[in-house]
Write a structure and sequence with these properties.
- The two termini are 24 Å apart.
- 52% of the residues lie in helices and 10% in strands.
- 5% of the residues are buried.
- Helix 3 packs antiparallel against helix 4.
- It has 106 residues and is mostly helical.
Length: 106
C-alpha cells in the first residue's frame, strides 16, 4: 500500500494496471492505495528487479518460481489449480509468509 498517488499513477502510465483504494482515511492515518497489475506484468517486473533487491529478494524469488510452476502446471493440465495446491507450490507460499513475518525470521 502507498499513500502517494503520484507514484502509483506514474507506475500505471509506464506499466499499466490500475490504482485501487486500499484503506480509508481516518483522523490518524492517510488514505492508502495499491497498484493492481496483471500477473504477467508483475512477474516480468520481478524478474527485472530481483538482482537489485536486498530485503525482498527471497519473496521475489519465491513469487517468480510460483508463477513458473503455475504456468507449467497449466500447460500440462487444462483448468484451474487444484485445491489443495501441489506441495511444492504450497511450500513457496509458506516461505513468503515466513519471510514477511515481522520481527526475527522464524
Amino acid at each position: 500500500c502507498n499513500t502517494n498517488l503520484e507514484v502509483l499513477h506514474w507506475l500505471v502510465q509506464r506499466l499499466g494496471g490500475r490504482v485501487c483504494r486500499s484503506g480509508r482515511e481516518t483522523s490518524r492515518h492517510k488514505a492508502s492505495f495499491r497498484w493492481d497489475v496483471h500477473k504477467a506484468v508483475a512477474v516480468h517486473l520481478l524478474r527485472y528487479l530481483q538482482p537489485h533487491l536486498i530485503i525482498k529478494r527471497g519473496q521475489a524469488a519465491a513469487a517468480i518460481k510460483f508463477a513458473d510452476m503455475e504456468s507449467q502446471y497449466r500447460e500440462e493440465r487444462v483448468g484451474m489449480l487444484p485445491k489443495p495446491l501441489p506441495s511444492a507450490m504450497q511450500m513457496l507460499i509458506d516461505d513468503v509468509t515466513r519471510l514477511n513475518h515481522r520481527g526475527p525470521v522464524l
